[in-house]
Every structure is written in structure tokens, then in C-alpha cells.
Amino acid sequence: GRSAALVPAAGSGTRLGRGPKAFVEVAGQTLLARSVAALAPHVDEVLVALPVGTELPPGIPARAIVGGETRQESVRRLLHATAAERVLVHDAARPFLPEGVIHALLEAVLDTGAATAALPVADTLVRAGTGEQAGDTGCWGELVSRENLWGVQTPQAFLREVLLEAHAQARSQGHTATDDAGLVARLGGRVRLVPGDARLFKVTTPGDLALAEALARVWDG
Ligand code: CTP
Ligand code: MG
Hints:
Helix content is about 30%, strand content about 25%. The chain has helices spanning about 30-40, 70-80, 100-110, 160-170, 180-185, 205-220, and strands at about 5-10, 25, 30, 45-50, 65, 85-90, 115-120, 125-130, 140-145, 150-160, 190-195.
């Protein structure tokens, strides 16, 4: 069956503070161009959701639609703009996407109908507690076991029908989530965890952009 990459890229990049994030450059190439270039060789078509009033820059092998107010709404619109059997949803804000992760996801989705890149949590986890002063929540509360805890990344792969149904349910129930696999899991759907990659971090803050600049030197060769 046909496959499509769906790239939500319609965010405003508030935390980064450099305007719409998809158009921010890392070592001379935008986050959007990098993400699309990684996906395009592995799918039949690439669709991107852009901020209203913006255009797809030349040379990016994708079809553009206008995104929504939220990431969830942007993905929902992307889903309705393709007829592909399998979809790979990937944040434009994660520009370093190894091809092994794509292959693993496209295979895993045939088994369960949904799969996401994810990494076992490496840091010690703690829930913040209250200090001596009222309202001070910056103190060590209790340790949280990191056993079986994974950090969820994108790409996430789905049979399109499965994700369409999850979005339809979420929308009618007024439920919002930060990612698509969460919407499927919420309905009892199985989501395979596929090993992601540390380089798949999301460029969110100015510090992440510095990290991306450094990584680009190695990645671009
Ligand atoms: N996104 C989208 N439509 C929205 C909001 C976000 O397509 N209405 C996309 C972003 O472009 C990004 C991905 O979802 O590729 C992850 O979102 P995030 O990292 O939060 O990006 P922004 O929303 O742009 O950043 P911020 O939250 O700091 O404003
Ligand atoms: Mg956001």
C-alpha cells in the first residue's frame, strides 16, 4: 500500500523566539528542509502543514496545506489530505532523522497498526516537592523509578484508518494530547515502541538550537 509522511510544521516557535520554527536554519538549511529530505526517499508522498500566511520554500519535495491552531489540529488536517494506507507523522522540529528508525517504524506498523520512536529514560527521575516556604515547589520530593519508562519521540507510524479514528474520537470528546500515539493508546490500541535516537531531539529552546548547530557539523559531513 501507499505511504505518506505527514509533517506538522505550523507552530509559531514561541520558546525558540526566532519566528515560525520550521523556517529557522541550522547550518544553512531549515528545520523543515532537513526533516522532509530525511523522509522523502522512504515514502510515496510528503505533506507538510504550514503556518497560515506562509509558503513552502522552493526546492522542498512536499505538498503544503495550512495547519491548525494546535499540533493535533494540524495533524488531523494532514490526515484528511492523504489517502495513503500508512502514514509517518514527524515533527519538522526534529531535523536529524536516521533512516534506520524510519525502516523500523514502517515495518512495526504492519504488526500493530501503530508504532512510535522512543528512548529508554537515562536520567534519574524525581517529582518536585515543596520546600520550607509555602509555594516553593523547587525541592526534591520523591524519586520516580525509571524502570520501563521511555521518552516518546517522532516519527510515529500508523495505519491511516487507525489514526483517523483516534483523532475523530479525541475531537468529539474535546480531548487534547501532545502526540498521536497517545491518542491511539487512549482508545486501547497497541503502540509498538521502536528504539529512537538521541539525535532525534526536538529543537525547542535556544539551547537546543546551539546543540543542533554542533550536531549539523557531524551530520552534514
Ligand atoms: N505544530 C503544528 N501546528 C501547531 C503547533 C505545532 O504543526 N499549531 C508543529 C510544530 O511546527 C512542530 C511540532 O508541531 O514541528 C512540535 O511542536 P513544538 O515543538 O511545540 O513547536 P512550536 O509550537 O512551533 O513551538 P512553541 O510551542 O515553543 O511555540
Ligand atoms: Mg508548541
